[in-house]
Amino acid sequence: MPELPEVEVVRAGLEAHVAGRTIAAVEVLHPRAVRRHEPGPVDFAARLGGLRIDAVRRRGKYLWLELDSAGTALLAHLGMSGQMLVQPVSAPDEKHLRVRVRFADDGTELRFVDQRTFGGFALSELLEIEGETLPETIAHIARDPMDPAFSPGQAARALRAKRTELKRALLDQTLVSGVGNIYADEALWRAKLHWARPTGKLTAAQAAAVLAAATEVMAEALIAGGTSFDPLYVNVNGQSGYFDRALNAYGRVDEPCRRCGTPISREVFMNRSSFFCPRCQPRPRRQR
Predict the structure, then answer these.
(1) Where in the sequence numbering do the catalytic residues fall?
(2) Which CATH class is domain 152-287?
(3) According to the model, what pLDDT value does residue 287 have?
(4) Per-residue confidence at 274, pLDDT binned at 50, 70, 90?
(5) Which pLDDT tens digit goes with each residue over 237-260?
(6) Sign of CA dihedral 88, 89, 90, 95
(7) Where do the CATH 1.10.8.50 domains begin and end in the chain?
(8) For 34-46, what is the mean pLDDT?
(9) CATH fold of 4-138, please?
């Protein structure tokens, strides 16, 4: 699933290509893409026609289009395989095209392509929360490390107060948003902490270190255009990111740790995988 760097790459691309443009028509080609809009696809398309996209925003893994309709946003989530593509009107339709947005200027159109249909759109009311305007649907999502108002100290305290394993806490979007499986493993490798370490036993310095590592690795991934392991994640121009070349832990099972040479291990975690160096990131004593 795309994480903060990948979603931010998409947001920036959308900001450049669709902000300031007026929607002429919306075509919903698969109802699952708007399943959270209870009135259905026809109503969804009708509500968007004639509206202008004023800006493209993001919090964590969510992005939304601010519309000139008072207090309304078009919330988008990429799911596992969602792609936001800016294409010429004449370009052939993609195999898994789910939603098409045409604009009044007859220029390029916005296409939502989603092979696995886990992503989609929804209309959401905008709320004023802590001096920021957010879609009501994601009001519970915490600030992410790239948010100017993000407080590392507050996030570290919240992390230590959570009685769970460290990686579970990093993936909890109500504590810190934007971190997913890839960047959690990378942050833990950099901070030399095992994924199963109890958060209640973290020192303040350890909590700060893992959050700083998450911020650092996601910033580096953003510069590289994100992480692409397959063709499912691309930017709005259909290009893949290349941060996978710089990964130190994730996906490198049995390859030597770039810090100590010990083979990287893989363990099952929440129906996913956790990758770590057993020497640099020793398991907590109570679990040995």
Answers:
(1) 2-3, 61, 272
(2) mainly alpha
(3) 56
(4) very high
(5) 989 899 999 999 999 999 999 999
(6) positive
(7) 152-287
(8) 96
(9) N-terminal domain of MutM-like DNA repair proteins (3.20.190)
